[in-house]
Amino acid sequence: LSPGAKMGCFTFIKVMMILFNLAIFLSGGTLLGVGIWVKVDGESFLKIFGALSSSVLQVVNVSYLLIVIGAILLVIGFLGCYGAQKESKCLLMMFFSVVLIIFIAEVAAAVVALVFTGLAETLLTGLVTPLLKEKYGVDDTFTHIWNVTMTQFHCCGLNNYTDFSNSYFYETRGSYPRQCFGVSPPLAHPHLRGCLLQGCFKQILEEIKTNAGVAGGVAAGIAALEIAAMAVSMYLYCRLDEK
Q1: Cβ contact 36:81 at 8 Å
Q2: TM spans, by residue (predicted)?
């Protein structure tokens, strides 16, 4: 290619890099805002996104996850956009490094999720059950989310009703949540009559697996964008030496 063509190609890729990272920056700001919204008003989030959001909220703290992802995207978008605009090798290398670290972490997480599914389920049970004992009946949003989940899936607790044994709710109310019962009134020992013995874990897992294809497609798309972003940033980085 002639010097003019090379310069034109460099300018085009530079502009695309700026626009692409500007979109990432704005997306990060949006996710950060949504994360704060979910943290402040989780019930509205639940009403808008329905049963799936209820299932997801049992597995992860969506508000903190969105806030962290949003903050990371803001940093990435800034580094890529400003680095390309100022033609800064330092910022471009920082951009490349951050995206590479995130890409490696995503691949590692995917491998762990595929290989150690049973271990992940055990860890999930170990994390959520203590939360039920401590936060159910204390945190209004957490309690509402679990009430919706138990009502929709006709289940009680994560594993079964014993998740509420020795819990704050049981100690203060002397009974299990009313969502754990059919038409019968709450009893001290729900396994004797009228209680839904089935825990919500399987239903939550099935709900997530049902949408795993969509999640996998989104993850693959994000990975492809990350690879493209790293390739473009490294191209600009190397071309700056020639300039």
Answers
A1: no
A2: 12-38, 58-79, 91-116, 214-238
